[in-house]
Amino acid sequence: MLTTQPVGSVVIQPGGILHFTNRGRQRLSFNGGSGYLWLTRDGDIKDYVLRAGDAISLCAGDDVWLTLEDADSAGAVTMERLDAPRSLWEGVAARFAARGARPCGAAVQAGA
């Protein structure tokens, strides 16, 4: 059982369990020839079944449990970061900081 954040690609064996706490926004992709990947996140009432080629977005702090079911061979789980580079967010923050605040309850005017 893996309990640290996977980086890049991780191989999971049939019946194997993978557990980690996600750091940052990431896309988890399942690459397998047979079977399916069962994904559960603590606090989420839904479970997810991923077939080969399927992907799901994960949020920072997600406590994720994976298991590979009904597979003839190992499958791969790939993690890809979805976070934008910090410089982009700094630029966006600067643009919004320059705008004046609108009080709550104020009417929205066209062009505002």
Automatic annotation (TrEMBL):
<protein>
    <recommendedName>
        <fullName>DUF2917 domain-containing protein</fullName>
    </recommendedName>
</protein>
<dbReference type="Pfam" id="PF11142">
    <property type="entry name" value="DUF2917"/>
</dbReference>
<dbReference type="InterPro" id="IPR021317">
    <property type="entry name" value="DUF2917"/>
</dbReference>
